[in-house]
Structure of Bifunctional protein PyrR:
Amino acid sequence: MEGIKKTTIMDAETMQRTLKRIAHQIIENTDGAKELVFIGIERRGVTIAQRIAGYVKEFEGVDIEIGTLDITFYRDDLSKNSDQPVVNESHFGFNVDGKKIILVDDVLYTGRTARAAMDAIMDTGRPQFIKFAVLVDRGHRELPIRADFVGKNVPTATHEVISVKVTEFDNEESVTICDRKNGD
Ligand SMILES: O=P(O)(O)OC[C@H]1O[C@H](OP(=O)(O)OP(=O)(O)O)[C@H](O)[C@@H]1O
Ligand SMILES: O=c1cc[nH]c(=O)[nH]1
């Protein structure tokens, strides 16, 4: 569409390489990924968690259980997010007590989703630790939250949007940056 500025910052090959690197970093930083569990944030954070877990299995032979959290922003009008992300559903097939948890999401922006995710996890027990893995950190944090494993740091303007696409949901693999000011 005319006027939309859309730039691809990762293609399928780069995404694969990036997720493999994160898998290696997680293995290095967690004593061979022993006794780890992943919690993915729906929807694409879960796909990313599954991919990283697949690479950990391939590289280290370790099976990682994956729990899921469904978090959406409560939108009080059509143009603006309210301040409060809402946890809709969680599926952990494990007790989080004493667990080493890697929280996984596609994009880190204000940090509010990560905060809501950590609150939801801590409400159910006392993990040994929570670390955070994201495919893209686009900056603009509103809370003192950072990721331990970052695929790519992408400096953005607030009027830009990072869009992560995965074959499972989008029939393509890409990360793009779109400029909302120019119509998208
Ligand atoms: O750090 P934050 O400001 O909380 O933003 C990050 C969250 O925003 C995105 O979800 P979004 O609500 O855009 O929905 P989507 O997953 O359907 O794109 C993304 O998947 C993260 O979960
Ligand atoms: O640009 C953004 C901001 C939050 N979540 C996204 O998926 N993209």
